[in-house]
Design goal:
The protein folds into three domains: about 90 residues, 3-Layer(aba) Sandwich (Udp-n-acetylmuramoylalanyl-d-glutamate--2,6- Diaminopimelate Ligase, Chain: A, domain 1), CATH 3.40.1390; about 230 residues, 3-Layer(aba) Sandwich (UDP-N-acetylmuramoyl-L-alanine:D-glutamate ligase); about 150 residues, Alpha-Beta Complex (Protein-Tyrosine Phosphatase, Chain A), CATH 3.90.190. It has an eleven-stranded mixed β-sheet, with helices on both faces. Strands 19-20-24-21-22-23 form a six-stranded mixed β-sheet, with helices on both faces. The protein has about 500 residues and is of the alpha/beta class. The longest helix is centred in the middle third of the chain and has 16 residues. It is built from 16 helices and 26 strands. Strand 25 and strand 26 form a beta hairpin.
């Protein structure tokens, strides 16, 4: 399409060098993604400055470049007079607004739900997608487990582990509309908010799950981390808030001015939605739901009290979208869970392999509490140091698991550019007795999974934790294909 850069609404451009219009067929923020007739956004990342790759982008076919260096653009305009150079104050903010316009404001054609919190974002996003679709409001989702429309997983090469970059995000909204979806629920990470990937979006609903220490390798302080999460609610018309979360929940209740539904697992709280009498069954859980002075008996195919809280957040979302509590409860027995969240795989000799990618101290603590409610002979747990996350939390994972499992495997998830053994060393500092005979090291996640499986005997639970399920391990900047499920299947087939 022909883009007239001097007529773009809502996108402040300080200066245009070159032709004010170009035929644009593609948007890119990475020089390797550039195709013929692309607009290239020279964003500054954590490690790289896109301005350094501008000439590469032009050679790849870029016809317009957004950036912040007037002097550099003047030089480039003499070398590449066919190209348009656009000077702006903030490239990331401009990219988000430009992408929204380029993809025809498709976010506004969907009911949008943003989910933020230290733990539970992936699960809540999956529950909301499933619940809304069951209620005949077809919904897609965007997050850690990939990109889903209402009826299948979509094949995208993800730009980030959780919240995509703005160009990818608006492309996904466009695709969801094309598939006939009417809602989109997405995990919104604190880093995504800080990097303005969701700039210009007005969410119909923002969901808050909880708050605890995380991502300090990026934010540096926990206050900056919290403030980034709070910003999501400045972009939301309504909110669902976990009133049990004292770190952030109460602050949101005091400051958010739109319609609010609160939820709690505490019977005497003042929450809108309360769950009590939670019981685990072979097929999931049952609980008593209290809402507007009425009592309802609920059955859901999920495990763990913390997941009941996640179910409540999904119920609150549906209520804010004007579904009745009766219709919601009717479909809850069919609720679908996300990949890798308390996912139980049956092994030989009554073994249970549980995949749950808990990767924070709080999430691991909650997970252990729920796993220990199940019947088992011995508990084997794999934990991992994550090379692309905050190293300071790694010893905490070790201190939580010590004394809680019969066998412990310490491995690495997404080593990045770090030496895997250095990551394991950091985890090991959290053990009081790191040389204990039941603590085992494995320098790759694959070796960790295989070691944990090899330790299993009849009636054991093998719990594989930590990290993200992106279908790959990030090693030396490359995405190496990886699947715990495939490794498990191959291991038992070979026995």
């Amino acid at each position: 399409m022909i883009i007239q850069f001097d007529r773009l609404e809502g996108i402040p451009i300080k200066h245009i060098i070159g032709s004010p219009s170009q035929n644009v067929l593609h948007l890119a923020y990475h020089s390797k993604q550039v195709k013929n007739s692309s607009v290239f956004f020279s964003i500054k990342g954590e490690n790289e400055d896109g301005h350094h790759y501008t000439e590469e982008a032009i050679h790849q076919g870029a016809v317009a470049v957004f950036g912040t260096s007037f002097e550099y653009f003047e030089v480039l305009s003499e070398r590449y007079p066919h190209c348009t150079f656009l000077l702006v104050e903030d490239v990331r903010k401009t990219m988000a607004k430009f992408a929204k316009s380029y993809f025809d404001h498709c976010d506004e054609k969907l009911k949008t739900i943003g989910v933020t919190g230290t733990n539970g974002k992936t699960t809540v996003a999956a529950y909301v997608r499933s619940l809304l679709t069951l209620l005949k409001l077809p919904a897609g989702s965007i997050g850690t487990t990939g990109i889903w429309c209402s009826h299948k997983k979509l094949m995208y090469k993800k730009s980030t582990p959780t919240t995509p970059e703005a160009i990818d995000l608006h492309q996904i909204f466009h695709d969801l509309v094309t598939f006939g979806d009417e809602a989109a629920v997405m995990e919104v990470s604190s880093i995504a908010i800080d990097q303005q990937r969701v700039e210009g979006l007005l969410f119909d609903i923002a969901v808050h799950t909880n708050f605890s220490e995380e991502h300090l390798e990026y934010h540096k302080t926990i206050e900056h981390y919290k403030q980034c999460k709070l910003k999501l609610f400045d972009q939301a018309a309504a909110a669902v808030i976990n009133i049990d979360d004292t770190e952030m929940g109460q602050e949101l209740i005091n400051t958010f001015t739109g319609p609010v539904i609160t939820y709690s697992l505490t019977n005497n709280s003042k929450a809108t939605l309360k769950a009590c009498n939670i019981n685990s069954k072979e097929i999931g859980s049952t609980f008593t739901l209290l809402f507007k002075d009425q009592v309802y008996q609920v059955e859901v195919p999920v495990y763990g009290e913390y997941n009941i809280a996640n179910v409540l957040s999904a119920i609150g979302t549906a209520l804010l979208l004007n579904f009745t509590i009766e219709d919601i409860i009717r479909v809850l027995p069919h609720l679908a869970s996300p990949e890798g969240r308390f996912q139980v795989i049956k092994g030989p000799a009554n073994q249970k392999i549980i995949l749950d990618y808990a990767h924070t101290p709080v999430a691991l603590t909650r997970l252990l509490q729920e796993v220990k409610k199940l019947d088992y002979q011995r508990l084997i747990v794999m934990i991992a140091g994550i090379g692309i996350r905050d190293f300071n939390k790694m010893p905490k994972m070790a201190s939580i698991i010590e004394g809680q499992a019969d066998e412990i495997v310490v491995t690495v998830d997404h080593p990045g550019f770090h030496n895997p053994n250095k990551i394991i060393d950091q985890v090991m500092t959290g053990f009081l007795n790191p040389k204990a005979s039941n603590i085992h090291r494995a320098p790759t996640r694959k070796e960790g999974v295989l070691k944990a499986l090899s330790l299993g005997e009849a009636n054991d639970i093998i719990l594989l934790t930590s990290g993200c399920i992106n279908g790959a391990q990030i090693v030396q900047g490359k995405h190496v294909p990886h699947s715990d499920e495939d490794i498990i299947e191959s291991y038992y087939v070979a026995l």
